[in-house]
Amino acid sequence: MKRFSFNLEKLLQLRGFEEKNAKTELATAISVAERIKLDLRNTAAERVRVNKTRNDTVDIRSLMAVENYVNRLDLRKEELLEQLAAAELTIEEKRKSFTAAMQKRSVLDKLKEKQFAQWRKESMSAEENALEDAVYGAKYTKENL
């Protein structure tokens, strides 16, 4: 009996490669969003720290410098929030492409499994027929002797 071969194996490998790439792109997008979230947390912590030092200074120039720095931190926070929104949209886009790639590969996997089951069934049937022929052939030759 010949070995099992899936005639769409190259396409299955291509779909697996596409799925792996989509997964990598999704992971990259998630890491970018996490980095932005970390920057947001650091900016918020810095703002809290600066606000605590604001009460310690009485010099008007220092107060103005602190106020300008707080304003810059607020601008940075707004920039990071915009970047985070864009990163979240990218994550959703990459997640959809990963899901689509998974489905494409899954369809081919199921087809391969189905064809393998059919091949196995045919193989077992052929083996049974060969064994029956051998047994009955041996029995028939003994009776004729």
List the helices and strands and how they pair.
Blueprint: H1 9-54, H2 60-144
Helix pairs in contact: 1-2
Number of helices: 2
Q: What's the quaternary structure here?
A: single chain
Q: Given the C-alpha coordinates, what overall shape results?
A: rod-shaped
Q: What is the average per-residue confidence, as pLDDT, rounded to a whole number?
A: 90
Helical content class: over 70%
Q: Strand-and-helix sequence, N→C?
A: HH
C-alpha Rg, in Å? Answer: 34 Å
What structural keywords apply?
145 residues; mainly alpha; 2 helices; single chain
Report what the structure shows.
With 145 residues, the protein is mainly α. The chain is built from 2 helices and no strands. Helix 1 packs antiparallel against helix 2 (60-144). The longest helix is centred in the C-terminal third of the chain and has 85 residues, at 60-144. The two termini are 32 Å apart. The model has no long low-confidence stretch (mean pLDDT 90).
Nutshell version of this structure?
With 145 residues, the chain is mostly helical. The protein has two helices and no strands.
